[in-house]
Amino acid sequence: MKQLLVAALFIVVIITIYSGTIGGSEGTKAELTGSGERISESIQSIDP
């Protein structure tokens, strides 16, 4: 029973950390998408 409780709490902690760092509205995933779009626009604006 103790192992089940520890596993459940571990899963909750992992989900909370993911939501706070990667999955949130200001998380890493959103920042990478925004950076990719800016880089793409910058590359497209280069006049060969």
State the main characteristics.
mainly alpha, single chain, 48 residues
Description of the structure:
There is one protein chain. The chain has 48 residues and is mainly alpha-helical. It is 81% helix and 0% strand. It is built from two helices and no strands. The chain has helices at 2-23, 28-44. It is rod-shaped, with a radius of gyration of 19 Å.
What is shown here, in short?
This protein is mostly helical and 48 residues long. The chain is 81% helix and 0% strand.
Helix-strand blueprint:
Blueprint: H1 2-23, H2 28-44
Distance between the termini: 66 Å
Task: Give the low-pLDDT segments.
Answer: none
Rg of Cα set: 19 Å
Largest sheet: none
Give the CA-based shape. rod-shaped
Round the mean pLDDT to the nearest integer and report it: 87
- Our count of helices gives 2
* Helix/sheet category: mainly alpha
Order of helices and strands: HH
- Percent helix, as a range, is over 70%
Proportion of residues in extended strands: under 5%
